[in-house]
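Posting for a labmate who doesn't have an account.
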Amino acid sequence: MHTRDVIDEEYHFEGRAIVSETDTKGVITFANRKFCEISGYEKDELIGKPHNIVRHPDMPRIAFAQMWHDIQAGKAWHGIVKNLRKDGLYYWVETEITPVFDAEGTITGYIAARKPANRKDIEEAQTLYKKILESEK
């Protein structure tokens, strides 16, 4: 597991959600100010980059495989995610990702909204993700 300290999400979020949008390949097309602040990246460092720029190595690949399966099928995905900041610190978020559709019903991208995950969900996710990561080796 990564040993750097977690940032104080409650203080930094201050009731505002992290919001980002991507194209259908997961490349960031929009990042709100709170996403920049929490991730430690400037907006121009995020736009045009794959969203996995903030993926923490403690996150199992299967979690994102399921996410992609769901959102590409036009469904929303909800989960607890550990993200990596630019400075090496990390933060846990409760994430909701939904597809964006054009007038013909074609998926044109995805929008994600995140808020701080609660301690109980983080503890459960850490236990589960650790087991999954061991099986992925």
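Reply:
Got it, the structure tokens are right above this. The CA atoms of residues 60 and 135 lie 10 Å apart.
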